[in-house]
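Worked Example 4.2. Consider the chain below.
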Amino acid sequence: MQIIKKYFPNLTPTQLHQLEQLLPLYREWNEKINVISRKDVANFYERHVLHSLSIAKVIQFEKGEKIVDIGTGGGFPGIPLAILFPESFFILSDSISKKILVVNEVVNALSLQNVEAITCRAESIQQDVDYVVTRAVAPMKDIIFWSKKMHAKKIIALKGGDLKEELEGIKKNIRIYDLKDQFEEDFFETKKIVVCS
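Applying the procedure from the previous section yields the following structure tokens:
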């Protein structure tokens, strides 16, 4: 948790309490349903929570805005972002129902009122949202295609490595943020946020 406090020093006591509960909850659920890799549990706050929250370094979600997290897996980046932005509404979607089961259990344990978790494929979501967020789910072209019916003003994707080939031929406005400019830990050396509008 120290790493979270280091980069997000202004969290409320409620937010800190909710974030502190994440590790024991995911430890417990990971024993039953593998939602995060075993080796990542030791670096949980750096590789899952801080990585998810890094989106807040480039975009601040406003009160009442609706954000859909496609391919949320165990709830990343959606759950940490929902804790950070309690006045925004988050829809966490994944096509694998057992992952959504874990998301619902974590959401209930934390009493998060601003999250809805749904089992479905990204392309079948047909409601209007303000943002689409995603983490290492699919190539950017696919994410853009799946997001068409959602009419989001921006797609925000957590990515890693060389993106030149992946972003080639995309006709939309693309901005890339290097996370090594925000965080000093080695994990973030090759990590990026791609914002597509």
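The chain has a mean pLDDT of 95. The chain has one domain: 2-196. Compare this with Example 4.1 before moving on.
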